[in-house]
Description:
Helix content is 30%, strand content 40%. With 181 residues, the chain is of the alpha+beta class. The strands form two sheets. Strands 1, 2, 3, 4 and 5 form a five-stranded antiparallel beta sheet that branches.
Amino acid sequence: MKFNKIVITFIFLLIILKNYSQNRNSETRQFIDNATIAQINRDWNVKAEFMSGLKEVISFFPIEAIDLKSNSKIKSLQMDMGLTDNYFKSSWIDLNEVDDFILYLEQHVIPNLKDKTEKKQSTTYIFNSREITFSFYIQKNSRRISIYLKDNGLTDYRHYFWTESQVGKIPELLTMLKAIK
């Protein structure tokens, strides 16, 4: 009887560990992390960039990562975020997630760039990928984009980018996404 409890407990712990150990990062991050020697080629010619009033910056651009030992390659969209507190981080959107990002921008954000809400009302449109959350918020006459980065599926709410003055540059992001797809 005691042996059965131990076996059941052990199986239960294995199931819990398996669920929590699943990597929720992008395929690109996993590829780079698993490569012993990697090369990352960035294309700065195709770039979308947003800057906040505090001079914080987030840049989107295509990359190709190469495992130099196996010569295998993966293409992706990289985001570099630089904040005022000397915080810098790179995250990736896999190309298979770019289609959903394009759909989100085309169907839910760009048609609503000029929208307003009534007093004491707001609307938020959210896109979630494995490594970022992109939020478009409307309240009365103001609009804001916020971008949060994730690690292993967990959103970092302490370090994020937001801007109201750069919302009009969202069509440039869409153009860039279509160019890399």
